[in-house]
Amino acid sequence: MKKLGMVIIILWGVGVHSQINGVTEKGTGIIHLERHQFKLDLFSPGLSYELGLFRNQSVSTALGLGMATYEPGYVIGLALNNRYRYYHNFNRRVNKNKNVSGNSGNYIAAAQAIFFSQARLTTNITGPDDFNLGFYGMVYGIQRTYPKGFNFNAELGAGYYRGDGVASGYGPLIGFTLGWVPTKRTSRKPVFD
Fold first, then answer.
1. pLDDT for 18-67, tens place per residue?
2. Could you tell me if 141 and 109 are in contact, meaning their C-beta atoms sit under 8 angstroms apart?
3. Rounded (5°) CA angle 67-151-86
4. pLDDT surpasses 70 at 16
5. Does residue 84 contact residue 57 with C-beta atoms inside 8 Å?
6. Per DSSP, which regions of the chain are E strands?
7. 107-153 pLDDT, tens digit each
8. CA dihedral of 145, 146, 152, 156, whole degrees rounded to 10
9. How does DSSP classify residue 147?
């Protein structure tokens, strides 16, 4: 957990340093992340919200169906997913005249997921009937939002699963969502201040 905390502090420090020193992606301004992005997830039914914080950094939360699999077994049910994202390839996408609106880019994120016992559909983990499960780790993800609002997000990572009443352990995190962004997005062209 100490290593995860250090990674979060380093990513945050890079963003703050960039803001203070006026480091830019291109030209004399900064790439504009969507300040607010709401998404309806269709593949794993649910809702997502992403808030742009600093240059290339955002936080997101999603509530929907999910699956956890780690050393003791698996859980399928309602999950709350939280991410602190750092988008690292906006500059390259802009140089290739690719879309960056709708937070279209690749990212590294500190990840947390909570699987609630009250909304669990199935599990093969032995233990009490009312256990919760939490995931804490890092993921690498790709998100794309297209002009009509179609959105996909794929991520892969690993971390620690902490069981509340059941055994804890390490395991992977694989996420994939297809959805639609009903909110207005910025121009497909990069925006500079």
1. 444 444 444 333 456 788 899 999 887 899 999 988 888 999 999 988 88
2. yes
3. 75
4. no
5. yes
6. 36-41, 46-54, 57-70, 73-87, 105-123, 132-145, 150-164, 169-180
7. 999 999 998 888 778 888 877 778 888 999 999 999 999 888 899 99
8. -60
9. T
Locus of tokens 């900064």:
30
DSSP 30-71: -----SEEEEEETTTTEEEEEEEEETTEEEEEEEEEEEEEET
Distance CA 87, CA 100 (A): 10
What are the structure tokens assigned to 55, written together? 């240059």
Pull the structure tokens for residue 96. 């290739």
Which position has the token pair 């905390």?
Answer: 5
What predicted TM-score, i.e. pTM, was given to this entire model? 0.74
Amino acid at 16: V
State the Cα–Cα distance between residues 71 and 109, nearest whole angstrom: 23
What is the Cα–Cα distance from 123 to 66, expressed in whole angstroms?
Answer: 12
